[in-house]
Specification:
This protein is an alpha/beta fold and about 625 residues long. Helix content is about 30%, strand content about 15%.
């Protein structure tokens, strides 16, 4: 629980041991143009003398503008985090951060840790890509992309002004309590031929008017999915391959996704979701581009075919087909398709469930009531994560490291590759530049935004998910929180308002976004720090991130072998120390500094301004979080 107190220039802010204190409410003020010459420095707004494990959040204009950390006679370490709690998508502010010892002016430049492991490749293409278990860590398989396709789909639905299929109204938005209870006549049989309409335009692109009829063969039928293979590319996946996939989807993907994000509708009356391996997906990739599209869910399949002729009025997940010789697009091996299928379905199934909850069942608009991209993608990465937990009998709030999820038996190794490796790659990219991303993206998102969305929602589940009754995944009842997020409430809320509504619905708490993002960034910097008294609000309980990345490093997992990847500017607390940083900070992001002293040290004054020396504008919603971690 947050306590807010107002600081002033002559007030020493002290935090109760083990408590979380927010020093000062209120916002900053918008200054006029700075007069020449610059005014003298203002008085210190807050003086901090924290015990180990204590946390303070500065929020009023005076304390954010200037505060000091009291000197001490022993070694200490602090995490000092500059936060923008702005809710403006794409908003960026320029900040000047000056930390100086009480006396002296010897310059000490900030030192940055290695940014990432050798060979960690970031695609130059600005379009975000999928990053799920793409095979053995370190393989040269290109990381596939699909958000460009998702953007095309959304533009196409908006263009046609599509409405949900009238079948949804005729079925009353009903969701089967037990999908297996549907009449057998509505369930396709193995070997049956079906026709599915593709919205893929020859040569790439998506259109409701594409109307390419694709002949498919039903290869496996389970309690939750029907696996269909495009007849034109069939034969690479064996009957046993697809039967095993169907079994695993029934056992640890569908039960988890349904529990976390709601049950699917049933527009086509078969009581199941179609997983369609088709060359139509392969056609969306460009040979030689270095990445491939591996799958998607399209809301066009839920629309009225009078408005979108390519609609199948069915719940379908579109999956890349094996094409070893590259006859359709870039070569896609059988081994790759078999390796990515489980995590891919878990990811895309969440997108389908999210759309169904809001439009088919909730009655909302399929575009304007869809969840914002950063949350929607973050929930799909959560879907991968918890499906992976369920597969190996793990649960949330177990403070896991790599040893528990990826070392030992073939099942653990496969599960890590299928469900966790891609998530951790995205998370590493985010932590390597945590202040430079578009965190609140509503369109295509970057690797970094995916990592932020996933890590933020993981913390949100740990922080606000109820402890009981435990759902399908052991450890907590956080599924209730994510189900609230997926549905958006009675009015299909989106984005930050939906996050705050869901928190209140499951916990009864009513924090502001400023509170939420400040606690989250503190947890990112201080999770499982080797110090007592840290409040649970600023910890992750599902993962022990320092141990996780240490064990990844010890096991030489390519791309994740450089230790905990959080980029921090290092500031030495010593006589004559002075450190200056000028940086941009995006909305709802943070810049991290680590203050260290190996022994007795003077106090440090910190000034936070615009590059010209003015107060940080009110719209930035600047906060400073200070955590003593030694």
């Amino acid at each position: 629980m947050m306590r807010w107190i107002r600081s002033s220039s002559d007030t020493a802010v002290r935090c109760a041991l083990g408590g979380l204190v927010a020093a000062c409410g209120g916002g900053t003020t918008q200054p006029g143009p700075p007069p020449p010459p610059p005014p003298p420095p203002p008085p210190v707004g807050a003086s901090l003398d924290l015990a180990p494990g204590e946390v303070v959040i500065l929020s009023d204009v005076g304390s954010v503008r200037s505060f000091e950390i009291i000197g001490a006679s022993e070694a200490r370490e602090y995490q000092v985090i500059v936060v923008s709690a702005s809710q403006v998508e794409g908003g960026v502010a320029a900040i000047r951060f000056v930390a100086a010892a009480d006396a002296g002016a010897a310059a000490i430049a900030p030192q940055l840790p290695p940014s990432r492991a050798p060979g960690f490749a970031i695609a130059s293409d600005p379009v975000s890509v999928e990053s799920r278990g793409m095979g053995a860590p370190g393989s040269d398989v290109p990381r596939p992309r699909h958000l460009e396709i998702r953007a095309m789909l959304e533009r196409e639905v908006a263009r046609v002004g599509g409405h949900v299929s009238p079948k949804a109204a005729r079925r009353g938005g009903a969701v089967p309590a037990v999908r297996a209870s549907f009449a057998a006549a509505g369930v396709p049989q193995v070997g049956e031929t079906v026709t599915i309409t593709s919205p893929v335009v020859p040569g790439g692109g998506i259109s409701c008017n594409a109307i390419t009829h694709v002949s498919g063969v039903v290869r496996a039928v389970g309690q939750n999915f029907v696996i269909v293979e495009d007849a034109s590319v069939a034969g690479h996946l064996t009957a046993s391959d697809l039967a095993l996939l169907e079994q695993e989807l029934d056992e640890f993907v569908a039960p988890v996704d349904d529990d976390y994000f709601g049950r699917p509708g049933d527009l086509d009356g078969n009581g199941r979701v179609i997983a369609f391996f088709t060359g139509q997906v392969n056609r969306l990739s460009t040979p030689g581009s270095g990445s491939i599209v591996i799958g998607f869910f399209t809301p066009t399949d839920l629309l009225d075919p009078l408005e979108c002729p390519a609609s199948n009025e069915a719940e379908i997940i579109w999956l890349v087909a094996p094409d070893p010789d590259g006859d359709i697009g870039p070569p896609v091996t059988v081994a790759l398709v078999k390796r990515i299928a489980r995590g891919l379905v878990a990811h895309e199934y969440q997108h389908l469930l999210n759309a169904v909850q809001r439009s088919v069942i909730g009655g909302g608009d399929p575009i304007f009531d869809s969840e914002e991209t950063w949350i929607n993608e973050g929930m799909s990465h959560i879907a991968e994560e918890v499906s992976g937990f369920h597969r190996i009998g793990r649960g949330t709030r177990a403070n896991l490291g790599f040893a528990e999820i990826g070392v030992g038996s073939p099942v653990l190794v496969d599960s890590y590759q299928d469900f966790h490796h891609g998530n951790l790659l995205n998370l590493s990219i985010y932590l390597d530049g945590p202040s430079g991303l578009d965190a609140l993206a509503t369109g295509g998102v970057s690797f970094a935004t995916r990592g932020w969305g996933y890590m933020f929602l993981r913390w949100l589940g740990d922080r606000y998910g109820p402890p009981s009754p435990v759902g399908v995944v052991a450890g907590s009842a956080e599924n209730l929180l994510f189900r609230e997020l997926a549905a958006g409430g009675a009015t299909q809320m989106r984005g930050i308002p939906n996050v705050l509504r869901a928190i209140n619905a499951v916990s009864g708490e009513s924090p502001s976004w400023d509170d939420v993002v400040s606690e989250y960034v503190a947890a990112t910097a201080s999770d499982d720090a080797q110090v007592g008294g840290l409040p649970p609000e600023v910890q992750f309980s599902t993962w022990n991130y320092p141990r996780l990345f240490s064990e990844l490093q010890a096991n030489s997992v390519p791309g994740l072998s450089a230790g905990f990847p959080l980029r921090q500017s290092q500031v030495a607390m010593g006589s004559g120390a002075r450190s200056t940083s000028v940086f941009d900070i995006g909305a709802s992001t943070a810049r991290y500094f680590r203050f260290t002293a190996s022994g007795a040290h003077p106090g440090m004054r910190v000034d936070l301004t615009t590059p010209s020396g003015a107060n940080v504008p009110n719209g930035v919603r600047a906060r400073v979080v200070v955590v003593r971690t030694r």
